[in-house]
Structures are given as structure tokens and as C-alpha cells.
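Researcher: Sequence recovery benchmark, item below. Answer with residues only.
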């Protein structure tokens, strides 16, 4: 059986796979190689390099392991028609993303940008920036799954009150309260910090509108670390220009890279993070921690693997 990686992982990780699964032929390449794809039974990819033509030509393909959480750029219908098994690495982003989100929150609360700017300009100003405390705040987390739950866990360590909004409204660990996402507007006024880690689906596209920003506190921090199409860019810019909220921290955008002429670059009440919050030196090894047990199951004929997805739903 052939397992084809469309990215060239670290040599030590490749060696680990080869030694652990001597019965498997592993191929490591940068990008799609048609000859390799045509004979591969398992494909390991970040998901952005696959087309319908690739799926059509991959006659032996039975399982796609996506080394990413998002699958919105994959040829979903072609994959579903072939009934190809799809799984991803949902959950491995929770540590680096939570650290990124917490770092941004603390940076704003403790006015670190002002401190750094004063240092560059040799300004000694003990009163500059008006710092506030994270302790005692309320955070509303839209999408309290693996990532959102980890965010909630660490925020609660800072004595932050956490509110979750998900599809069901069922209770979730590390959320003090949980409500249905359909009732989001009702609970936004409670929050000092609004954090979205939602995936991109038909239901989440432009889920947050201008009226939602009107419902937020004028000193709220809005953070989008899920997908950029949660909010229409023009709506987001309008809300920031009108100072409906204090600050936005954006790791994702409707158009990426963010165009140079975007108004978002010029606004003082926004922090632009170039879709890098999940980056970590440990990313690939965490991916293999999910892939290896799944490969063992697959070789035994067990298709009930971790993070098995409905490709048409996107999760």
C-alpha cells in the first residue's frame, strides 16, 4: 500500500513512519506528482493542492488525511461521489492558537504596543496607555470546540467568565454558560471579549453582521481566528470606523493575503495577524500523533478513525 505525502516533512518524522510501518510504501514529495497520486491509496495533504482532476485520476485513492483543520478549498463533491474517507487534524491547533489569542488579549489589556512604541522613541511615560485587567472580564466564545474549549480553560485560570455559543446550546466544558448560536445577538452585550473560532460553512458565512457589532460593548475586543468570511469586510471596516467596539484582532480575512489597499491596514483599532496563529515548530509532530493511530486502524480494516469528517458539511 502506498501513502503519498504532498509535502516534504522533517527527516526524523519520515524515518519514524518508515520504521513503524515497514509494510507501507511512503512517498514524500513537494506538491502533487501525478504518477504517485495515480497509485496511492492514502493521500496526506494540506488540502489546498487538490483539484477535481486529481480526484478523477487517483483511481486507487481511498483515504485523504488533511494536515489542516479547514477543507473549504478541497473538491468536496468529487471526493464525496467517490466515497473517499476524509479525516483531518482537528484539535492540534488548540495549543498554539490559544497562546496566540491569549497573547493578543494581554497585549491590548496591558498596553504593550504603547510600551514598545515608547521604548523605540525613548519616552518614559508611566501613565501612558491606560492599562486594564483581564481578570474579572467576560469572554464569549463562538464555536467552543477543541480550540474554543482550550481558550476557555486558560481564560478561566485568569478568572474570566466564559460564555459559549454553539449549534446545539448544550453545555460544554470550560464554559460557564452555553447558548445556541442562533441566539448570539442576545448574549453579545454581556461580553468584554468576543472570540470566533468557527470553521467556514454555508451557515457561518457572514454570520456576524453590522447589527451584531451594534450589540457589542463599545469597549469590547472582537477576535476572529476561525475563517475570514464570518464577517463581510465592508461591515467590519464600518464597525471599526464608527468605533462600535474598542479593538479587533484578525487572524483571518475574506481575501488572503490582505490586499495592500485594504482600509484595514490603516485603522488604529485593529491588529492584523497574517493567518499565522496556529503556526508552531511542533505542528507536524502533532499531526503525526493523530495520523499514526489512524493509520494503524486503517491497516487493520477499521475505518472509524479519529477526526473522520463529512466532507460536504466541512467538519
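Model:
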Amino acid at each position: 500500500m502506498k501513502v503519498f505525502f504532498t509535502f516534504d516533512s522533517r527527516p526524523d518524522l519520515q524515518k519514524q513512519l518508515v520504521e513503524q510501518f515497514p509494510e507501507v510504501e511512503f512517498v514524500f514529495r513537494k506538491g502533487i506528482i501525478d504518477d504517485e497520486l495515480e497509485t496511492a491509496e492514502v493521500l496526506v495533504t494540506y488540502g489546498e493542492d487538490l483539484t477535481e482532476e486529481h480526484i478523477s485520476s487517483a483511481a486507487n485513492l481511498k483515504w485523504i488525511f488533511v494536515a489542516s483543520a479547514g477543507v473549504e478549498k478541497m473538491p468536496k463533491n468529487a471526493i464525496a461521489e467517490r466515497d473517499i474517507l476524509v479525516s483531518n487534524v482537528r484539535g492540534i491547533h488548540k495549543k498554539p492558537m490559544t497562546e496566540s489569542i491569549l497573547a493578543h488579549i494581554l497585549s491590548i489589556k496591558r498596553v504593550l504596543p504603547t510600551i514598545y512604541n515608547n521604548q523605540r522613541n525613548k519616552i518614559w511615560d508611566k501613565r501612558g496607555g491606560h492599562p486594564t485587567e483581564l481578570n474579572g472580564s467576560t469572554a464569549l466564545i463562538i464555536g467552543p470546540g477543541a480550540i474554543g474549549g482550550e481558550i476557555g480553560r486558560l481564560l478561566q485560570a485568569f478568572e474570566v467568565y466564559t460564555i459559549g455559543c454553539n449549534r446545539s446550546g448544550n453545555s460544554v466544558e470550560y464554559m460557564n454558560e452555553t447558548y445556541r448560536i442562533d441566539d448570539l445577538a442576545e448574549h453579545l452585550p454581556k461580553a468584554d471579549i468576543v472570540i470566533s473560532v468557527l470553521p467556514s460553512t454555508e451557515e457561518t458565512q457572514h454570520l456576524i453582521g453590522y447589527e451584531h457589532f451594534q450589540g457589542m460593548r463599545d469597549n469590547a475586543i472582537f477576535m476572529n481566528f476561525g475563517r475570514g468570511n464570518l464577517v463581510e469586510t465592508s461591515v467590519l471596516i464600518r464597525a471599526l470606523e464608527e468605533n462600535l467596539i474598542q479593538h479587533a484582532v484578525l487572524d483571518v480575512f475574506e481575501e488572503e493575503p490582505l490586499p495592500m489597499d485594504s482600509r484595514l491596514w490603516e485603522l488604529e483599532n485593529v491588529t492584523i495577524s497574517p493567518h499565522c496563529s496556529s503556526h508552531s515548530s511542533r505542528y507536524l509532530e502533532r499531526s503525526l500523533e493523530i495520523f499514526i493511530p489512524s493509520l494503524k486502524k486503517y491497516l487493520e480494516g477499521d475505518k472509524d478513525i479519529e477526526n473522520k469528517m463529512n466532507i460536504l458539511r466541512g467538519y
